[in-house]
Structures are given as structure tokens and as C-alpha cells.
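ESCALATION

Customer reports they have been waiting on this structure for their group meeting. Please prioritize. Original submission:
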Amino acid sequence: MYQDGKIWVAVNDKGEKICLLPDKANRHGLIAGATGTGKTVTLHVLAEAFSDMGVPVFMADVKGDLAGLMAPGNDSEDMQARIQRFGLGEAGFSYHGYPVTFWDIYGQKGIQLRTTISEMGPVLLARILDLNELQTNILSIVFKIADDNELLLIDTKDLKSMLNYVNSNRAQFEAEYGKMSPASIAAILRAVVALEIEGGDVFFGEPALNINEWLTVSESGRGMISILDSESLINNGRLYSTFLLWMLSELFETLPEVGDPEKPKMVFFFDEAHLLFKDAPKSLMDKIEQVVKLVRSKGVGVYFCTQNPRDIPDAVLAQLGNRVQHALRAYTPADQKNVKAAADAFRENPEFKTYDTILALGTGEAVISFLDEDGIPEVAQKSYILPPQSRMGSITDEEREQKVKGSLSYSKYAQAYDPDSAYEFLERLGVELAEKAERLKAEAEEQKQKAKEELAAAREAEREAQKAAAAKRRAAKSAANSVGGTVGREVGKTVGSTFGSFGKTLGGNLGASLGRGIIGTLFKS
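Update from on-call: job pushed to the front of the queue and completed.
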């Protein structure tokens, strides 16, 4: 409950209120405990208080039992006993629902939630695709090439087109960007196809989420509680954790620096937080640690909810100043070590041993330590968590559908659209190149045919010229023979006339034959 400017979460053994100070809420926190010990109730109580305070809240609903925040709680004898025990009647406790917006990456149990490939970036995308270091580097290069050529990477088909384009033109890019193995590019392509099968084809696209949608308040002044349905998403741990980290990164990049505000600008609850860190490469771990450390100054509080504090890396765990530790069980030596580590994280209360208390906690009980006004962790307090004012448990499909379609955000994101991006550009480029290749091929065929025709014409002209030359030679030879014969006959007649008429005739015939022979010999030479 939000009362007297404080977030009332629980009461201790002495009946004293255990409160979280709003100006220390952005120092992050941890809610831990074994299954069934009351973590979900704590989440409800904190989310309600932040909303009453006018602070927007984001929650990942892994089991479907946070949706009840939208509806008033149900009265019962047990609830009345708790109200009486904590003195909640005098504090203004009442059953009521809270402003809730449901979101779903798959668009089935909430407003369709999308982002783009470019906004996700190569590092987080490589985490989803489970790429090795070399493949991650190549993916980063592909993003750089797309950026340098002003190509938008919106959805998975854009990324696949870009990968194929880079692979087909490796020789062109390798001089500037470095060698890229076809086998590695093929492995990335296979991973993208696998992601599509798991729902990536609907998650990546437009319209992409505007992060400011989660920073709104209702007409009554309560902070909007955005609930991401994660019952299906949790089966894909990489997509779940990477999306939540992306959202936190977007908040960090979008929000201005505010230092330590009187109350957070937004509070973020990571349920099943161990999935965020499971098998995470060092580069991603560095990113998580950086965001958690720096997002505080943007007025964002991050609360990790997990079964065991050891699920959280030490570098992140050290940033969590507000802690609610529900019961842990120690059935093995490893369990005992985990409980001791959880107990050692608290300032020791001389009135009890924290280790023993954590083991003996019942459902709805917790060891709590919040930051005081000076930012110093208070001593551990054995506490009893307040009951929520909203409904515990799930809601009906009809209630959910009515809430989803009644949201102002529904009309903004319900209908997907496909903008002009890398896929369309490369398709056009491929068509243009194909058309150009066909055109060049046709031109080459035309030139080849023209050359053939010119060659045939030249050969025909040559043959005609040869025929004409031969005819001319024959005519010249014939004329020369005629002249040679005539001249030789006359000379022969003149010479043979001295021997009488017979000599004249014989001389003319011999002279004509001799003249034609001489002319023939000249033409042959």
C-alpha cells in the first residue's frame, strides 16, 4: 500500500510497518524465494503501491497469475483475518483493480509487441540466435554494411536478404570490412530461419513499440501497469531474456538523466531472472551490468525476481539495495551454502539468526531489508507481507480480450505493415541487375548478328569483286588475243608475201598464232 508518502510492504514481529522509501526505489531490488513461498504476492503488493504513487510499472507474467491486477480482490475469511491482523481497515484498504495493459510478443494474449532488427542490434540479436564469437562479429559487419548503405533492417526477411547479398558480393566487401566465411554466413542464416519458426517473424516488424507507451498514467493518476504475457515466451529463454534486456536498454537510451528523483519514473520487474544470465557470453554480461548500474540515474528501478539469489551474478547482485527474501530450503550441502550466502547479504539483526529464520519462514513471510533515508541497508527484519487489494490469480479470456481491445494502444499496434526496407531494395536491385544483364545479353546478340551479317556481306562483295575481276581479265585477254592475232597475221603476211600467195597465207596464220601465244604468256605472268 502507498501510505503517508511511503510504500508499506509488510509488518515485522512487533507490528511495526516495513516501508520502502520512494526516493530509494530506483536503487533496484531483489525478491527471492523457493516456489510457493509468496513471491507473487510480494510482486502484487509492490506493483499496486507503485501504481498508486503514479509510477508506471512493467511486469513479465510468467505463470499468468499477475493478470489479476486489473480486477478487484476477492473477499474471504482469510482476507478479513489478515486485514484485521495488519490493521488495514483503518489504513483505507479496499478491493479494487488497477490500470493494466496486456502485451504479447506473439499477439495472442495481449497487444502485439514488435521491435525491429535494427533496434535490437547485432549483440542482442546474436544472443537470441545463439551465435559464436566469429558469427557474432560477421553479423555486426552485416549490420555495418547495411548502415553504411542506408538499408533498413526491419524484419527477418530483411536480415536474410542482407546476409545473402553480402555473401554473394564478399569479394567487393572483404577489402573494406574483412574476410567473411560463407560457412559462417550460412550458419547465421539457419539460425534466423529457426528464430522465424519460434515466432521471430511476428516479433520483428512494424509498427515497432514506442517505449513511451509504458511510461503513461491513467486518468485517475495511477501508474499504468504493463504486463507482458510470458507463458509461451518463457519456453524460449533466449528470446525472453534478450527482449527484456532490450527494453531496459531502450529505457536507458530514451530517458533523460534525473539523478535521484523523489519517486521512480518507472519500475521494472524481472520474473524468472535467472534466464537473463543463463549461458550469457561475457559481452552480454558486461552490457547487463552496465545498464543495471547506469539506468538508476534515469529514474528506473529494476527488481529481479528469482528462486535463489545465487542466480544473479555478483556484480549485479551488489547493485540491489532493497531485498525481500522469502523462504529457502536446504536439503543438500549446496542448498545450505546458498541459504548461507543469502543470509550473509543482510545486516545481521541481533534478535535472530538470519540463516535459521530464512529456513523457517512460512508462506507470505520474508526477511526484508530496505535502504534507509541515508541509503544504508536496514538490519534484517522478519516480516509478514500485506495482502494485495487486487485479485490474486488469473482472469477469464473474456476479461482479457475486453481489456486488450479497449486499450488505446491496441489500434496503434494491431495491424502490422511492411515498409520499404532492405528486402525490397535488394529485390529491386536484383530485378534491375537481371534486366540489365538481359539487356546486355540482347545487345551482345544483336552485335554478334550484325557482325555476322557484315561479314557475310563483305564475303559476298569479295566474291562479286573476284567474279568481276575474272570477267575483266577474260575480256582483256580476249581483246589482247584478238589484237595479237591480227597484228601477228599482218606481220606474217608481210613477211610471207615474199614467197608468194601461199607464203602469205601461211605467214599470216603463223603470225596470228604466234601473236596470240605471246599475249597469253603475258597475261599468265
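Sent to customer with the following note: The two ends are 128 Å apart (CA to CA).
Escalation resolved.
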